[in-house]
Amino acid sequence: MKLVHISDLHLEGGFNRLSSDKNRLLRDESLQHFSDIIAFARKNGVSAVLICGDLFDKLSVRKSTLKYVLDAIREASEIKFFYCLGNHDHQTSFEGELPENLVIFPVEFVKYDLGEVVIGGVSVLKYSNSDFLKDVRFDKNRLNIFMLHANLASKSGDVLNLDIRDLKNRNIDYLALGHIHTRLNGKIDERGEWVYAGNGGEYSFGDHQQGFVLLEVHDDKISWQRVDFAKRKFLEIELPLDGIENFSQLEREAEERLKNAGSQNFVRLVLSGECDEQLDKRLPLLTEKFSDKFFYFEVLDKSKIKIDIEKCKLEKLSLKAELIGLIAASQLSENQKEEAIKIGIAALRGEEVEV
Q1: How many beta carbons lie within 10 A of that of residue 290, not counting itself?
Q2: Are 275 and 306 in contact (CB under 8 A)?
Q3: Exposed end of the chain (fewer CB within 10 Å): N or C?
C-alpha cells in the first residue's frame, strides 16, 4: 500500500516580486501542480493522499478554484483523500456535495480504517486549543497514522502549538504534519516518528524545495522517502568576491556560475566573501544583465569590504582616518575595534552594513 503525504501547497499563491502577468501564470501553475501530484499518485498506485493543511494560500478562495480542486479529486475516484485544515485555509467552505473519496477532518478526533493502516486526524480551528488530545487513541496492534497542521518548533499565534511529548505512548506510527515548510522529522517515542512534508507548492527562496513524502506499507511497517516535485526551482548560487578586481571579471564569473541554472527557475545570485574596497559591483547593471535569462532573477550582496586599516591610518584630511583614530582611542577590545572600523568605513562608502 502506498500513500502520499503533502502539505502547504498554498494553491493560487504567488511571488510578490513578480509582475502581475507572471503571478497570474503562477496561480494557474499551482492548480496544475495539484493535478500533477494526483497524476503521480494514480500512476504509482497510491491508495490515499494525506493533505495536512494550507491547501490554499488565502482564507478567501475563488469558487472556480474550489471547483477545480474538487473535480480533480472526484476524477481520481480510486484514491482516498484525507484533508485536515491549516491556518491559511481553516475558513474554506466547500459548497455543494463533496466527492465521495474526500474526507475533511472535523475539530474532533476521528479515524478511518483502510485495512492495512488506520488514518486519524483533526482540523484545529481554535489554534490555542489542544483539548482534542485527550481523545487521540489508536489500537496498539494496528499501523496508525495521525494527521495535523501544527507547530512543533516554537510558539506561534496563528496555528496549534504542540509539544511532541503530549503524543507519546498513543500508538502513533507516523505523525503526518503540515505548517513548517522545511523538511524536518524526528521521533515521537520508541514506536513512532513525526514528519513535516515540507513545502508542497509555495514559491519562496530558502530551504523549501517543493515536494512531498511517499509512504509505503509493507510487512506491517511504514517506510517513507521524500520526492522532489516542482516545475520551477528556487536556486541560490554563491559567487565569492575574493580576488575579483573589477566589474568585467565579476560579470564573467557570474556568467560561469549561472550557465546551468535553467531559464524556468527563480535564481538568486549571492555575492559573498571579501572584496577590495575599490571594487564597483554595479549591482543594478548586474541584475539587469541576467533578468531576462530566468523566470526571476535577483542579486543578494552578502560580501564584506576588505579594508587595509594601516593604509587608511596614513591618509591625511580623511574621514576614514578620523574614524579610525576615534575607534582606536576607545575602550573596545582589539577585535571589536577592527570590526567597528570595517563597519564604519563601509558606512562611509554607502555600503549596506549589518550590526
Answers
A1: 18
A2: yes
A3: C
Q: Are 266 and 232 in contact (CB under 8 A)?
A: yes
Domains of the chain (ranges plus CATH)? 2-228 (3.60.21.10), 236-348 (no CATH)
Query: What is the rounded CA–CA span in Å between residue 184 and residue 193?
Result: 11
Query: From the CB of residue 174, how many other CB atoms can be counted at a distance below 10 Å?
Result: 27
Amino acid at 317: L
Name the strand (E) or helix (H) holding 71: helix 63-75
CB atoms within 10 A of CB 113: 10
Where residue 349 falls (left for φ over 0; alpha for ψ -120 to 50; beta otherwise) is alpha
Instruction: Write a three-state SS string for 236-273.
Output: EEEEECCCCCCHHHHHHHHHHHHCCCCCCCEEEEEEEC
Output 129 or 292, whichever has higher pLDDT.
292
pLDDT in tens, 66-108: 999 999 999 999 999 999 998 888 777 777 789 999 999 998 9
> CA-to-CA distance for 180 and 7, rounded, in angstroms?
9
CB 56 within 8 A of CB 70: no
Q: Judge whether 12 and 31 are in contact, CB under 8 Å.
A: yes
Confidence of residue 168 (pLDDT cuts 50, 70, 90): very high
Q: Which of 146-150, 202-206, 210-214, 340-344 has the lowest mean pLDDT?
A: 340-344
